[in-house]
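Fill in residues.
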């Protein structure tokens, strides 16, 4: 369940990133839609990192690296 939430958050971050790019090209840098899209992207990225940290803290996510 946690892994699915992380994947959905990453996909939402990508959608927000490309919507910011679209608004930047369409509005030619004028307007606040670019700033809003990038603000949403930063918030989604922070929530994704928080979910990953919670997953490691709670034991739902583990690392299998040998080093």
């Amino acid at each position: 369940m946690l892994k699915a939430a992380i994947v959905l958050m990453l996909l939402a971050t990508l959608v927000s990133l490309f919507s910011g790019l679209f608004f930047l090209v369409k509005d030619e840098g004028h307007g606040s839609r670019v700033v809003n899209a990038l603000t949403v992207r930063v918030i989604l990225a922070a929530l994704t990192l928080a979910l990953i940290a919670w997953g490691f803290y709670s034991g739902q996510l583990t690392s299998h690296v040998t080093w």
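The chain has one domain: 2-58.
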